[in-house]
Specification:
The protein is of the alpha/beta class. It has a single domain, classed as Aldolase class I (TIM Barrel). Helix content is 36%, strand content 13%. The protein is built from nine helices and eight strands. It has an eight-stranded parallel barrel, surrounded by five helices. α1 packs parallel to α2, α1 packs parallel to α9 and α4 runs parallel beside α5. The longest helix is centred in the first third of the chain and has 15 residues. The radius of gyration is 17 Å and the shape is globular.
Length: 264
């Protein structure tokens, strides 16, 4: 049975984002090297200024097949902290288990998110929720990789039951056997139903994982903002062609700036 409403702290009180919408999270799919994350952050700050409040970057990467780049791991967290000191950007990364949460809390990461492959696993979500008990860090929850409202809401409820009060949603589409245009089905209805259940929660839109290619991102962003999403979570890399994961869907910081101008 779904919980009726959640006791949450409004996003305006998180101390994370600038006041004006759309709220923006941007950065590379993954941290690849100290140089890569630092240069990407510098260019994002130079291109976007105060429009960007949070730098996203994956420290641990779940890959479909073994042998690919699976992230640098916890040793890259100090690189993110150095970037924060240099640029003033808040930092956000994905966690997949309780150990990742504890590493982020120890390091002083500003915000974390739970990814689409973790959200549908109640065991992992519970492990994350247990590790978060007593912490005051904001947590974003991406929708499951499958079109499943119960698993998405259940993940939120597990976090809420452990006292997590700074909660937000990220919609990144769902896997589909029939979708031919985008990497993932936009599944607008799933996001609408979830937001209707929890209207008190901010909901951000991740066009990168829906599009799969940068050419489709602008139109998807316009649709999302027209539908009332509160912000965007977009992948950006200073040299996308050299990215070790999701190269085709990462915008350069300059292109991301142009995109935001076009959305005004």
């Amino acid at each position: 049975m779904m919980m009726a409403g959640l006791k949450t702290v409004p996003l305006a009180d998180w101390g994370i984002f600038p006041a004006d919408k759309p709220w923006l999270i941007a950065g590379p799919c993954s941290v690849e090297s100290e140089l890569q994350i630092a240069e990407t952050a510098r260019q994002l700050k130079a291109s976007l200024g105060d429009r960007l409040g949070v730098l996203r970057a994956g420290v641990w990467k779940l890959r479909t097949h073994p042998g690919g780049f699976e992230g640098v791991g916890a040793e890259s967290l100090p690189w993110l902290l150095r970037v924060r000191r240099e640029t003033g950007l808040k930092i956000c990364t994905e966690v997949i288990c309780g150990d990742h949460v504890r590493a982020c809390l120890d390091a002083g990461v500003d915000m974390i998110w739970i990814g689409a492959r973790t959200t549908p696993n109640p065991y992992l979500v519970q492990d994350i929720a247990d590790a978060l008990q007593g912490a005051d860090i904001p947590v974003l929850v991406k929708n499951p990789i499958g079109n499943d409202l119960e698993l998405w809401s259940g993940a939120l409820e597990r976090l809420a039951c452990r006292g997590v009060r700074k909660l937000g949603l990220v919609h990144r589409g769902v896997s589909s056997l029939t979708e031919k245009h985008f990497r993932n089905d936009p599944a607008w209805d799933l996001a609408a139903r979830m937001h209707a259940l929890y209207p008190e929660l901010p909901i951000l839109f991740d066009p990168s994982h829906i599009a799969g290619m940068t050419a489709y991102i602008p139109a998807l962003c316009r649709q999302a903002l027209d539908k009332g999403f509160d912000g965007l979570m977009i992948e950006s890399h200073y040299r996308p062609a050299e990215a070790l994961s999701d190269a085709a869907q990462q915008l350069t910081p300059a292109d991301l700036s142009s995109l935001l101008e076009s959305l005004k």
